[in-house]
Amino acid sequence: MFWSVALLLALAQLGVATPLTRRWDDVAVKHSWVELPRGWEYHSSAPADYKFDMRVALKQDKIDALIANLWETSDPGHPRYGQHLTPAEAEALVAPHPDSREAVDAWLQHHGITPENIAYSTGGGEWVTIRVSVAEAERMLDTKYDVYHHPSSSERVVRALSYSLPRELHSHVDVITPTTYFGTMRSMRATSFLVPLKEEALEEDFSINAAVPSSCASAITISCLRTLYNTSSYVPAATSVNKLGVSGYLEEYANRADLQTFFKTYRTDAVGSSYTTVLINGGLDNQNVPGVEVPQDYAVKVCNLFAQLGSIGTTAFFSSGDEGVGGGNCLTNDGTSKTLFQPAFPASCPYVTAVGGTTKVSPEVAVSFSGGGFSRYFAQPSYQTSAVSTFLTSLGSTYSGLYNATGRAYPDVSAQGSAFRVIVSGAVNSVSGTSASSPTVAGIFSLLNDVRLAAGKPSLGFVNPLIYSNPSSFNDIVSGSNPGCSTNGSFL
Description:
- By secondary structure, the chain is an alpha+beta fold.
- The protein has helices at 2-25, 63-74, 87-94, 98-110, 134-141, 222-228, 256-266, 296-311, 385-395, 434-454, 464-468; strands at residues 27-32, 41-45, 51-58, 119-120, 127-133, 145-150, 155-160, 162-166, 173-177, 193-195, 317-319, 353-359, 365-366, 373-379, 407-410, 413-416, 420-424, 427-432.
- It has a four-stranded antiparallel sheet.
């Protein structure tokens, strides 16, 4: 009888403990790589006591509602066009559901992480930051962290080739970092590069109605851009409220002394004006040194953040890349080494405006390095269906199977990207790249915003539906090529 009672008590205790244990032990892979992302090499095992900040991105509860709102407010034919959300309204839509926060809190506490050691981001509170050791992270994510080396940038990072979460958390968590995303600032490809500096005349003050001088075919200056894109006569009127931000990555920094030299050389009426630097997430502002493989869960999360920016009236422009079609990485890393055109990110996100590069004048043509292609993560948005259909009809069967014809196509617009005159360390240099094209387009749309704001209207916000619904307002680039992956390239 004694043994029977003891056995019943043991079974009762097991019955209480097992569901809790099983809740967190029933795991499934969240993301994994079959092969190490290109450019990276294994270096060593990560020390078990090495500590880092783990960031958990909770699911945005009403992201679908935010995106639906974005489509309405960015469609020039919709009654709600331009009725952007306030930041608080956007944050309320993307805040995680209480169940998501409760589930993640319980999981963290199961692993010995107490509430006072959990930091939630301000605003929507969708990001959770915790300080953990490699040993703790490996136990929580059922993974193995190692140190990897990127020879071309000398970067070393602690990353994993896969990570898992309890099945219950998959519906509550978008992504966890750092895990399988290997991209770092130094390891990213720059989208600009120096080119030989050719002899040129001093900057001329072209008349408003002048034709674009032939010199602009080999050297792009401020006057070339103002004449080519018809902005010479406009005088901004809403400078107190209109703002344009240029994000800096890759440890490249704007230099205030060079800016003044640039103004003195190319735009004398702007001498003395400057900019404000905002440092984000450990960013630097070094005044002495001027300066593609993305996991799907990471890409979707970041892309949705751009949708959130668009919903509050901010326009995001990104360079399309400088490797032609395919982005320079033509073989998949899924174990098959299949040749495919690899799309760039974030240019392939449907909530940003991707900018390609052109060269020459009368007419402008696509510059050979300009990136372009079709996303393998994001479906083709309705705003570009007609334009893409026309393009695919003209392309026919060329490159069939190398790209995803139903994916989001990019770039959306293009601008001059070759032989820009800039000042580096006090001297004139010539640079090329879509990193020159993108801020050029941003500057033009900033002037359009100035017109609207001066008239008491809201900013343009997400502009892709506006662009595609007004093709006659743009100069269609119909010639040139962007070779890549041993092809001539046609994705302009």
